[in-house]
Amino acid sequence: MPGTAAYPRVRTTPPGWEPSKAQRYVTVASPQDPFVTERGEVIDSVHLAYETWGCLNAARDNAVLVFHALTGDAHAASHPDLPGDRAGWWEPLIGSGCPIDTDHYFVICANALGSCYGSTGPRSLARDGRRYNLRFPQLTVRDLVAAQLRLLDHLGIARVACAIGGSVGGMQALEMAVIAPERVERAVVVAASGRFHAQGIAYNELQRRAIMLDPCWAGGEYADDCNPRGGVALARMVGMITFQSDESMTMRFGRSTDARYHAWPEFHGRYDVEGYLHYQGDKLAQRFDANSYLYLSRVMDSHDIGRDRGGVLAAAALVRARTLLIGIRSDILFPPSHVSATADAIAACGGAARYWELNSPHGHDAFLKEFERLDAILRDGVGVPPGAAICAPPVASTAAAAF
């Protein structure tokens, strides 16, 4: 598909992450056609990194847009035609014969605006040649969706067969069904609801403060070789607690003191669950940018489909897509009662919405683990068009060769 494989001249991605060879880059905003955020701030140049699977058919109506979660990237699945391509974060769900079937669908996944995996974000260069850092405009879920709509425009896709995502990705899938109802046939919203809640905002604030209190953060102006990894690691440790449940942690760790990770100093011994948190913190600190973490966690906080629209019910009335909302029984970050209430709101307004609950002990992270149990419901939610896709001629690319 159109786009360029050229990588940016100045690295804006963390050293612990490398893109798939399938990742493409496209310019969706320029000084002649700038991106204006929901708050009215202008970004005069926006690039999105994205990957695709399958073929866009002649009618250009078989596209599935996949949205990633907070620290995800565009690499939702591997590409069979690229030997050695690493597995993606939704590997069992995207591909030939999978719930998101690339024999039938043209699948798109783009790195979110504000992230650090190839798309424009706070570590990108501004027009003055310096990194934006905290000069980057504040973003909302609606801004992230607006950027992806520009990507669809670039690809010549007027309407998607399905918008789907989990967590922050689910927020975007739902918001797209509200902000552009004429462009979404189906929506599958996994582990997300119509608005983020106070306790979730509180969790996110703890994570942001962990980063901002790291001396290396330096007011967001940290050097590439001296970044706040400790703060990012601590933020991730808090985040991992919200992604789990008491059931899953008890099953996996119990009260074992036989810790498997020892990189952090201990205090009077070390429980295995502590070592797990240390490991996950260090792992993310190697691959994710601190300022992007701040911006995207605040994006989560902004999520409320009813904001400035007359409330959740008024916003729900805008949804025309056949919508499936999936809650997780043990999820403390997006409680299932909130997810089911969103489905009820859409249905109460006459929309075709239904709720299904995954009976899993694995908390919020179940949407990245329980692939076998999600298989049938996702096939039903996404739907399968008749016949295999026959590729349409590509749209002429307007992407810059490098940026």
Describe the structure.
This protein has helices at residues 141-155, 168-179, 198-212, 229-243, 246-252, 272-287, 290-302, 312-316, 336-348, 371-382, and strands at residues 24-29, 35-36, 42-43, 46-53, 63-67, 94-95, 100-101, 106-110, 162-166, 186-190, 322-328, 353-358. α4 (229-243) packs across α6. 31% of the residues lie in helices and 14% in strands. The strands form three sheets. An eight-stranded mixed sheet has the order 1-4-8-5-9-10-11-12, sandwiched between helices. The protein has a two-stranded antiparallel sheet with strand order 2-3. The chain has a two-stranded parallel ribbon with strand order 6-7. Residues 396-403 have low confidence and may be disordered. β9 (162-166), α2 and β10 (186-190) form a beta-alpha-beta unit. It folds into two domains: 24-197 and 303-382, Alpha/Beta hydrolase fold, catalytic domain (Rossmann fold, 3-Layer(aba) Sandwich); 200-297, Rna Polymerase Sigma Factor, Chain: A, CATH 1.10.1740.110. The chain has 403 residues and is an alpha/beta fold.
